[in-house]
What does this fold into?
Amino acid sequence: MMHFDHRKYQPGPVLAMPHRQWPDCSIQQAPIWASVDLRDGNQALLEPMGVAQKRRLWGLLVRLGVKEIEVGFPAASQPDFDFVRWLIEADQIPADVTVQVLVQARQDLIRRTFEALAGAPRAIVHVYNSTSPVQRDWVFGSDREGVKAIARQGARWVREEAANYPQTHWTFQYSPESFTATEPDYAVEVCEAVIAEWAPTPDHPCIINLPATVEVASPNRFADQVEWFATHISRRDALILSVHTHNDRGGAVAAAELALLAGADRVEGTLLGNGERTGNMDLVTLAMNLYSQGIDPGLDLSRPDEILAVVSECTGIPTHPRHPWVGELVYTAFSGSHQDAIHKCLKRQSADAPWQVAYLPIDPRDLGRTYQEVVRVNSQSGKGGVAFVMEREHGLNLPRWLQIELAQIVQRESERDGGEIDGPRIHQLFREHFVRDQGPWRLTGYRLARNGHDRIEVRLGTPAGERTLHGEGQGAIGAFVDAWTRAFGQSIQVLDYQEHAIGEGTDAEAAAYALITVDGERVSGAAIDRDVAGASLQAVLAALNRSVPTVVHDVATEQALAA
It folds into this structure.
């Protein structure tokens, strides 16, 4: 750490705004979404997208409902130029979608840009130049007036060139690059010069885009800058105020969201946040943030797996499983307490009530996900997760006492093998430990006579042959317990018994669960059968098969009894 010296860095700019308004505001509607995947995102890739990838990503953006899409820098790249021409000549631009292109404030590049857009029904021409002190002094070697003159001249060239293509509906956009590192008053001054050239009106506004080209301060500082700009620029009603945030400090989404509170109308970003350095603002995350607050995002995000697949294929960048809202593990709980809370809440959540399920800020089904992703089981899981998996995948609604016992078995298995235990393995453990229907004692038949006081004749299979028991009591279970006690002299008490149908209809099976004591020892068993009474007897018998020590585990005793 000998070269790790924090003293060479300075804090980001701070505006004195004692009367700032944005902290008390709330977002009421979605912004105008502008995708820069095909330009800003593409230039950040190790291997830029080919034609097929660009076309596929374009198609995805259109399907999602993005209405403004920056498709390239046609004056600086022949592939970008060709892609723009394909969109226009192949009639690939829907009537409600506007393409956007980027260009520096240079006359030859601006002229080439308009050549690329010839014949487009509508288009946004996005011109920019850097305005921050370090760019002015160290990169361009110019002063404030000189940089402002570049912006003004670029705006004039854009306006004049557009006049040569009257068949297209043009929207002009200007960005003071490195806005967050630019003096606020100077940023306004430069933008005023551009606006004077374009003379926008409320019916034909221009876009002023405020980029956090590099994120240099916390999101609240950016919100201050946006509010200050919005309250000091003229012709505000003729401007669409846009923001373009980057993720250098990990706050791109937060900065954009706070900027909307501060007066921004429009947001530029990329699907899943691909972009230079640490990335651009994530359109999906911000849109889902709004959705989770009851605001219609205006984008169709109901098929996140399609978004993940297309973006990954086109960019070559996999999506982290914990990516906000759409990652593979986002709606997965391993923690036992989380699983238990989710399980309980889902049972109480009604379809017509506001969503309020613990640990799930939205209903996963809204994103085309099923609850299979919600609860998964490993050594950190508890009874809630095990119970959820058993109910979800096998229709078994385990009693609490059985949930606890099975969860302990599953946890030991997970700790021994390491990693996750899937639903089929949990079900296998359940059957191995609780559904002991293969012996040593097996129910081979029974006859129940009900005449005020139940009498039962039970036939049991053993390794030594079949044994018949007789008993009587209240109900089939009571009569069976009496028969067992008469035959073997063991003290048996039924502590709890539960049953339920698995599925619906006349062919539905019954699941039965019994918790008993055998000579004071608690033991549980379960059974699944089409015959409800038979299932109840088998559940008790399964518990007896599990009791240790018991006569059922002593073959010699069985043989003696059978004799």
About this structure: Residues 144-162 form the longest helix (19 residues).
